[in-house]
Amino acid sequence: MADNATAFHTRAATAGDLAAVRRLVEAAELPADGLEDQFPGGYDVVTRGGTVVAAAGVEVHGTAGLLRSVVVDASLRGQGFGAQLSQRRIQWARQQGLDAVWLLTTTAATFFPRLGFRPADRAGAPDELQRSKEFSGACPDTAACLKLELRPAPRE
Fold first, then answer.
1. pTM reported for the whole predicted model
2. What homologous superfamily is domain 8-149 in, according to CATH?
3. Region 134-156: what's the mean pLDDT?
């Protein structure tokens, strides 16, 4: 049985987690620009012994969500924290009534299809999302764009 110092806990992020999440994001060489814009509202973190070791967020831009800053401490990668946090954020996006969740990635284009994301045309993202810091410059044009539909398409 793990003691509290070694146990992992998943919870909603708090304002006090911002600096730790920023450190993780920068250490993983992910874009940190705009991280604070919707933090902590749409973010979850995993802690161990009171230290943030993983995070993920969904920013809301109109009816679209932007999954961003899915990050796990390098020493803990491959243990399922990224998938767990991503699934929690997707569920949160559904509860918010969002139509879809989008993401941009330069490093994990093969990871996210396991969670239901499909390649998408970046230019086809909603205008509100196009204006986000992630879409408008923080993530390079070479980043893969993926989308997860949360609502079924209307029937004709």
1. 0.90
2. Gcn5-related N-acetyltransferase (GNAT) (3.40.630.30)
3. 82
